[in-house]
Amino acid sequence: MTYREVYEGWKANPEAFWMQQAEAIDWVKKPSKALFADNAPFYEWYKDAEVNTCYNAVDRHVLAGNGKRLAIIYDSPVTGAKAKITYQELQDKTARLAGALRAKGVEKGDRVIIYMPMVPEALVAMLACTRIGAIHSVVFGGFAANELATRIDDAAPKAIIAGSCGVEPGRVVAYKPLLDGAIDLAVHKPEFCVILQREMAKADLIAGRDFDWDEVQEGVEPAECVPVSGDHPAYVLYTSGTTGKPKGVIRPTAGHLVALNWSMKNVYDINPGEVFWAASDVGWVVGHSYICYAPLIAGCTTVVFEGKPVGTPDAGTFWRVISEHNVKALFTAPTAFRAIKRVDQNGEFIGKYDLSCMKTLFLAGERADPDTITWAQNQLGIPVIDHWWQTETGWAIAANPMGIEHLPVKLGSPSVAMPGYDIRIMDEGGKEMATGELGAIAVKLPLPPGNLSNLWNATDRYRKSYLSTFPGYYETGDAGYVDADGYLYIMARTDDVINVAGHRLSTGGMEEVLASHPDVAECAVIGVSDSLKGQLPMGFLCLNSTTARASDQVVKECVQLVRERIGPVAAFKLAVVVERLPKTRSGKILRATMVSIADGKDYKMPATIDDPVILDEIKEALAGLGYPAD
Ligand code: COA
Ligand code: AMP
Question: Is 401 close to ligand 1, i.e. is its CB under 6 Å away?
Fold first, then answer.
């Protein structure tokens, strides 16, 4: 079948399409139908089914006689460690940890926060939770104690599973002090913590609260898979919104299983037993969907890579991992390729390895610039596929579905809508725009299986953020257009979210931190273009009139404050003191105009600007920081 036939087939009968895809999942109790629309605009998929995520990701493969197949390949250039884990071993590890959690009182519906580096135990922890119906919430290791505390208070976990440390190039990041700090800051206290001790930095355990990963599992009864209903949350994953308070995206169990399983073959063209590598982190949605769940649900082998594209030890690391582990497809963010291209423009490292196993490169997480795609195509000689999705959707909204049909690649476009997604481009008033016209991208409800069902503890925010601007549609927060061939182009965010090295960050959140500095009267954070990371945050600070301190000192403290409160991942290093911020007469800060000036782009003088002279002051401040960059 062609892509067009598959897409039209879905559109003609979505219910039949999704019931057919559901046949690939092992159900405890089969769903009587796919879509439950009784609570529209809150839709639920396979709600009356009973199923278990871990069973589908692990046990069923062992029962089918594939226990000896590799489930996880761990490759850690930052520590020198490598390991291979079969499905049988993964079942064992998962059942034992799940048994330990259960023995300490974790039950179906309880939340468990996971704060771990890129080690196989992170996947074991996620699967152990879903095995007993506990709802995990993984927090990225690059977030600071304060961010972890916010998530602890929102998710109210019974337990936290953490690594003692992470390893970044050139430094060991002790996680345990961050964890202790977060628990001190949080109002909610977990009943206990399980700590995976890593040799590079062993943690001091607090007696009665903290338990060693190995010791807590000694002598416990391994746990069986607990059936949950189709709409039971498999996990909550926090992501950035416009404010400092993150949104807890709820992923319902059954739709997640069906959609991810479908995507492995149809989007990525990966069959059971083949090796798939998503070079991301378990703390992000890419890590949830394509390091942990999808490859395992589909019976493939997943690679857990603890390292960076460059510097661990060199720009050939990716190629070494691909050739050594027989990787069929790599999925990463364009930033990683920009980093490699920067140090290996001529692809000398690429030439050193036999990459004949690699059939496709998938890019997502940020806009894939045509230069990077072209470079990757030329160097690798394989299809380079941009695809577009979000934490909220859990899998691709638009892609070039390699398992169905390799459509012509159009540079700058993540190709076409996947089945399940009816994409519309809207003007501000919610009127559909013509082909080729730029507008807000919306998806007609219901969203397909695998997408979020709500926000944790924040139903009103869910409605407001996604459902109220265009009634009957999901608002993606991205702007773009569709061309005459149905190819989508993603141009910008419509909110204050920025994308730094494929990491989604809130400028509003950073402004909240800066505003808490005693010398800062007012501030604005914008995302400026960066040739490596796509965007970088930049802060403008207006100081209190009573402040007698040197601007440089305040800037330094502000940079440190964001690192301490949000974490190093914010990459907040650019800030400048200005007298005033450009505003409209009604007091709205003209952030978009500031971005255009910083990026050296033409801009129209906003008709509503209060005092145009301030823009000259901003230009001067930006020049001091070296912007616009060449
Ligand atoms: N734990 C602790 N600190 C972390 C961390 C973690 N898990 N991950 C990142 N950090 C720190 C880094 O050490 C760095 O700290 P520094 O300011 O002291 O240098 C900071 O957070 C920023 O990290 P990062 O964005 O990774 O930048 P980098 O300069 O270290 O590396 C790239 C740049 C391009 C190599 C890197 O961003 C990369 O590999 N990107 C791939 C894209 C990706 O994985 N995206 C995920 C979504 S698909
Ligand atoms: P996240 O939720 O962290 O995955 O970030 C999702 C956001 O990243 C999207 O809303 C887009 O703004 C951006 N994004 C992801 N993939 C792409 C892509 N292929 N092209 C352009 N932007 C993308």
Answer: no
Residue 484 in domain: no
The token pair at 405 is 């049909």
- Determine how β-strand 111-115 pairs with β-strand 165-168: unpaired
In this predicted model, what pLDDT tens digit does every residue of 221-260 receive, in sequence order? 999 999 999 999 999 999 998 888 999 999 999 999 999 9
Asked if residue 591 belongs to a domain, the reply is yes
288 Cβ contact partners less than 8 Å away, ≥ 6 residues apart = 126, 138, 235, 237, 251, 282, 394
Domain that holds residue 548: 497-624
Ligand 2, atom 4, lies closest to the CA of 390
The answer to whether the beta carbons of residues 112 and 101 sit under 8 Å apart is yes
What distance, in Å, lies between the first and last C-alpha atoms of the chain? 48
Distance 312 CA to ligand 1 centre (A): 12
pLDDT digits (tens, 9 = 90+) for 316-347: 999 999 999 999 999 999 999 999 999 999 99
* The pairing of beta strand 360-363 with beta strand 384-386: parallel
Rounded to two decimals, the pTM is 0.96
Q: Which ligand is nearest to the CA of 165?
A: 1
Average pLDDT over residues 75-79: 98
From the CA of 284, give the closest atom in ligand 2.
3
Would 582 be classed as within a structural domain?
Answer: yes
Number of separate domains in the chain = 1
List phi, psi (to 5°) of 234. Answer: -75, -40
Ligand 2 centroid to residue 389 C-alpha, Å: 6
Instruction: Tell me what pLDDT residue 28 has.
Output: 98
For residue 329, the CA-to-ligand 1 centroid distance in Å is: 22
Residue 578 is encoded by which pair of tokens?
């200005």
The verdict on residue 473 lying in a domain is: no
Give me the count of residues in the chain: 630
Read off the CATH number of the domain in which 546 is found. 3.30.300.30
Give CA–CA dist 172/378, Å, rounded.
Answer: 36
Q: Which two tokens mark 108?
A: 């179906």
630 has a pLDDT exceeding 80: no
